[in-house]
Amino acid sequence: MSTSNSQGINTLLDAEREAAKIVQKAKQYRVQRLKDARSEAAKDIEELKAQKNTEYQNFVAQHSGESDQSLGQVDQETDAKISEIRAAASDKKEVAVELMLKSIINVVTEPHINARA
Known about the structure:
The chain has one helix at about 1-105. The chain is an all-alpha fold. The model has no long low-confidence stretch (mean pLDDT about 90).
C-alpha cells in the first residue's frame, strides 16, 4: 500500500508542479500584456501629442496672419488720424497765435473777483 500511496503522492506532486508552471506562465503572460499595453498607450499618447501640436501650429499660423492684417489696418487708420490732426492744427495755428498775442497785448487791469476790497 505504501508504494501505491507514494505513487499517488508523487502523481499529486507532479500535478501540483505542473499547475504551478501553468500559473507562473499565466502570470508572466499577464505581466507581458500589461507591459505591451503600457508601451502601446505611451505610443498613442506621443502620436496624439504630435497631432495636437501640429494642429496648434497650424492654428497659430492661420490666425497670426489675421492679426498682422489687423495691425496694418490699425496703423493706416492711426496715420490718417494723425495727418488730420496736423492739418487741423496748421489751419488754426494763425488764429490761435493771434488770440494769444491779443490777450498778452491788451491787458485789462481790474482786481480779481476774489480780491478783498
